[in-house]
Amino acid sequence: MCAVDIDEEAAQSSGADLAIGADVADREAMAAAVDRVLERFGRLDVVFCTAGITHLPATVRSLKPGEAQRVIEVNLIGTLNTIEPAIEPLIAARGHIVVVSSMGWPPNTEYGTLLPAVGGVAYSTSKTAVEMLGRGLRMELSQYGVGVTITYFGPIDTAMGRLTLSPAPKAKERITVGPEKAAVAVLRAVERGKVRAIIPARWNFLNIVRPLGVHLDNLLLRSKTQREFIRTYDSG
Ligand SMILES: NC(=O)c1ccc[n+]([C@@H]2O[C@H](COP(=O)([O-])OP(=O)(O)OC[C@H]3O[C@@H](n4cnc5c(N)ncnc54)[C@H](O)[C@@H]3O)[C@@H](O)[C@H]2O)c1
């Protein structure tokens, strides 16, 4: 296994056989990482695009220039940069791609691809786009034997989960899934060739209301709590 992380020490401490320090937003660096994997292992079976960032809850209005762009660059362009140089080796191995979308951020709306996440608009935009990237790649690559799984994480107990959920009063209680459990659920989804994996599974019901689209937004616009969140997030 190879771990690629902008934080090379984090990649090394993961226990992977090969650790590479690279920024997923850097296309050349990701192509070089694929080359190193092929040199070392001779093949590439599964690409798991998990690198992702966000900022503390804040409106687009209140963010510093470039902050929202960097979230989209890492989460969306980074996912594309991770997959694109790996396509030919994945076809050769009849391999699998895992992209990471979201069902849970920030604390007020909680639904990354369900509602426009106030305080995390760039994040929910990137994660909705990642979902479409996964769906599109599946359409293009399935006839060559390459599968795609789109994972939608709810709140997971990681550095990101703790950082982004901390402002909500009962937020910590909502972090019910540990990273190991989430990783096992992803592996199971890949083994079963599942296209969509919502983790935890009890959040599956959210998909039923997704087609409501802007009607859901309209309901949320009437919420006093939502308006209070916006005022808090506007202050940065
Ligand atoms: N934790 C949650 O509650 C939650 C919920 C929904 C979705 N997700 C998604 O799950 C994925 C994993 O998140 P996590 O909770 O483990 O976050 P994390 O912050 O704990 O870990 C993210 C890892 O990505 C690395 N990284 C950041 N920017 C990078 C870059 N430009 N290039 C290479 N590596 C980079 C970091 O160094 C870190 O090791 C992310 O895509 C995130 O959006 C997480």
TrEMBL record:
SUPFAM superfamilies: NAD(P)-binding Rossmann-fold domains. GO terms for molecular function: oxidoreductase activity. It holds the Pfam family adh_short. Gene3D superfamilies: NAD(P)-binding Rossmann-like Domain. It comes from the Bacteria. Transmembrane segments: none annotated. Keywords: Oxidoreductase. Belongs to the short-chain dehydrogenases/reductases (SDR) family. This is Oxidoreductase.
